[in-house]
Amino acid sequence: MTRGPLLLFGVAALIGLPLIVVALSLLNPQWDILAHLWQTVIPEYINHSLILLVSVGIGVTILGVSTAWCVSQFDFPGWRWVSWGLLLPLAMPAYITAYTYTGLLDYAGPVQQALRSIFDLQIGGYWFPQIRSLGGAVFVLCVVLYPYVYLITRAAFMQQSTAAFESARTMGAGPWKSFWRVAMPLARPAIATGVTLALMETLADYGTMEYFGVTVFTTGIFRTWYGIGDTQGALQLAAILLLFVIVLILVERYSRRRAKFYQRRSDGQQMRKPLKGRQAAAAALVCWLPILLGFLIPASQLLIWSIERAETWTQPEFWELTFNTLWLGLLAASITVLLALWLAYGRRRHPTKPLRAAISLAGLGYAIPGIVIAVGLLSPLAWMDHRIIDFSRWAFDINPGLLLSGTVVALLFAYSVRFLSVSLQTVSSGLEQITPQMDDTARTLGASPRRILWRVHLPLLRSSLLAALILVLVDVMKELPATLVLRPFDFNTLAVRAFEMASDERLADAGPPALMIVAVGLIPVMMLSRALKTQSIKTGD
Amino acid sequence: MSALLSLKKVAIQLAGHRIVDELSFDLEPGDIGCLMGPSGCGKTTLLRAIAGFTPISNGSIELHGQLVSDSGKSVPTEQRQVGMMFQDFSLFPHLNVADNIRFGIEHLPSTEQEQRIKELLQRIGLNGYQKRFPHELSGGQQQRIALARALAPKPQLMLLDEPFSSLDAELRELLAQDVRFLLKEEGITALLVTHDQQEAFAMADKAGVMYSGQLLQWNTPYELYHEPQHQLVADFIGRGVLLQGQIREHQLHCALGVIDHEILCEQGNHDVTFLVRPDDVIITDRADSKLTAVVTGRGFRGSHYLYTLELPDTSQVLAVGASHQPLNEGTQVGIDIDFDHLVVFDSDVCELPD
């Protein structure tokens, strides 16, 4: 009981610090700055953000729901491939996909070159859509983010009782009507959950927007902070972005609650209907198109670049960079997993109200854009650094430098805030399979608490701990904006390197580091697809 | 012989709610006891208190004459030498059958461990399953492994919490008898908790019915069935209906006519409720019977039919009929009443205990 409030305080301080700093900037509005921002950039940011949210929302819904429906209801040639292939874009950070499409579709890219040579056109003498634009950003985000909708909606379609759908059919509703009147409404909360997750990623995206020159809050915060050096302005932009995020969080919580309400245990083997001929081809097309656009094309482009820059793979500097990134990711992963273990065990032992509040607060981190966390952390850490320097000078006459804000401590802090919820979810679900009765049984068999931990808990938790480590590792590897803001001087990760190369218009040089990120990112996708397979077996019996 | 398990006026409070109230009973060494009752009556909580997972707020629990729980102290579970089997079996999924059974006897030399494992597996008919993992076993097999694991350290007392509820009905009774045989063979005293009376009848030497934290009666299953001391016990155990009647001049007047019985000799005149079991009602030929009834319902039970009969005053009783000549609904039949045991309750004490 005594540890509950302590935990609450610890986690609230950890997760809350950047949020509080950002929110406080709103409570203490600098009217002249705000007025200036309103007159110049904010309307444009809001405008762009809304266009992005609406278009990406529609796009991922169409892609995610149509693929989820095909995979959950029908059987067609290649079903096994697409059912997990549709998850592959999860391994592609949006900004990397953006680089590859730019490489493909720009003036000098192979597509326009081919068009020019085939139709004998002059540069500038024809119309071709500009990929580095708001529309291009919508396209990239849609093909990268639809798996969130696919994954959750597919599970919802599979868990829906077939009886509901079939009884609609017996009452004379055709397959289309049954889909719109029964299956869709039942899956709506799940779809909403998936879409809000995709939209959170949309709001958090920095790399794509920056590269495509789309002005939104994330790029604005960065520019205001570094370009103009206006800390207060950046914090206040972050606060406005946070308001958008909070709306999404509320929508997500609401739809998750409803999703629980609608979900039932599947009441038997759901038979997928085998398709033939043109119907099978249509279903295959619906499913292969997103895989092609979201993974196969960008991944091939990365491969081509990596082969073009083959010498990179032998440079010790590149491997040092890779090692650096992995080391940083593992460190952050270990910290978050330990924290998650602590919280999850706390909740298991004493599920008090403050404790559960602390844990759901910890779950918020993932929704908050990395750039918001970064600017929210930087000023309090810098403040603490200066206190440390003052003290150290006074006590030891030594200037230790920026111990917190200038080192990886700041980065690890930010990663913990953002990714704690990832590891917490994984660890909690692992802990759930260790029922309280198992502990009780072990005690009646004479085992001490320590022996229970070593002989029962650790062996059973091993795989979820590993999964949590890998998930956070990959997330850290992909993370761009917080890393850009908080990294120590001269410290690089693969993501930052890819970003720098692309910003310098050296797209091919961005290939090897990007490919490395994607390769490591494939590990959790594989784990996910394996988990899905066992899930569908389990619901099948 | 002194009791192996003795509960005296045990009360348990959880989060301010009184779950168990002034509950006492004894269990003799080697006996199998059974607590029945609807879900939420506090029986599992009581079991957990005996295991040492839940503290008690009043009274005492003694194991082998030694105090293990009272309002102030509680001997930790691991020192009580009780085995416990849970509803979900709680086999350790990462350990194979042999290692699951080994878990409680790892302090023994390894040859002894192996011998005990083999001996137990032979006894439950699963020798050769040492290397299997829990998920490869059927429900009934898992249940027997869980039992073997709990038996391995030779506990003084075995506690079983709804041990058969996750199995299907056919398997249940079969296993209940197996488990009884095993426990008797090992000479282990056991206490079982269930909401299923068939299970209780198949296993128990002594049984009791719990209701809202109170033990209404503690006796042999035979006594519970034929001489329930409480209306709720009568209602919970076995099939039957409760009818209203009046005792006048040491005779029971009711819809079944006027009934004489030895137990009525000491009773004064008052209104009563009395229990009519299906085996008290005998369906006869219509002609030579003074009491008639109409068949209003029929349930096939395989070896027999269970009929619902409506008496002229519209009250209903149950009766058993032979399987091979079913009576149709609406048939008029004659009935005889033969009370071997007549159980009457005062009409005004039929309220639930609180």
Automatic annotation (TrEMBL), chain A:
Domain annotation ABC transmembrane type-1: ranges: 46-252, 322-528
Membrane topology note: Multi-pass membrane protein
Compartment(s): Cell membrane
InterPro entries cross-referenced by the UniProt entry: MetI-like (IPR000515), MetI-like_sf (IPR035906)
Pfam short name (any one): BPD_transp_1
GO biological process: transmembrane transport
Keywords noted in UniProt: Cell membrane, Membrane, Transmembrane, Transmembrane helix, Transport
Entry-linked CDD domains: TM_PBP2
SUPFAM superfamilies attached to this UniProt entry: MetI-like
Residue ranges of the TM segments: 49-69, 81-101, 134-157, 178-200, 233-251, 280-305, 325-345, 357-378, 398-417, 452-474, 510-528
Signal peptide region: none
CC annotations in GO: plasma membrane
Family: Belongs to the binding-protein-dependent transport system permease family.
Protein name listed in UniProt: Iron ABC transporter permease
Organism of provenance: Idiomarina seosinensis
TrEMBL record, chain B:
Pfam family for this entry, one: ABC_tran
Biological processes per GO annotation: quaternary ammonium group transport
The organism's place on the tree of life at top rank: Bacteria
SMART domains in alphabetical order: AAA (SM00382)
Keywords from the UniProt entry: ATP-binding, Cell membrane, Ion transport, Iron, Iron transport, Membrane, Nucleotide-binding, Transport
Keyword Endoplasmic reticulum belongs to the record: no
Residue ranges occupied by any ABC transporter domain in the UniProt entry: 5-237
Single GO term (MF): ATP hydrolysis activity
Cellular component per GO, a single term: ATP-binding cassette (ABC) transporter complex
PANTHER family membership: SPERMIDINE/PUTRESCINE IMPORT ATP-BINDING PROTEIN POTA (PTHR42781), SPERMIDINE_PUTRESCINE IMPORT ATP-BINDING PROTEIN POTA (PTHR42781:SF4)
Protein name in UniProt: Iron ABC transporter ATP-binding protein
Organism: Idiomarina seosinensis
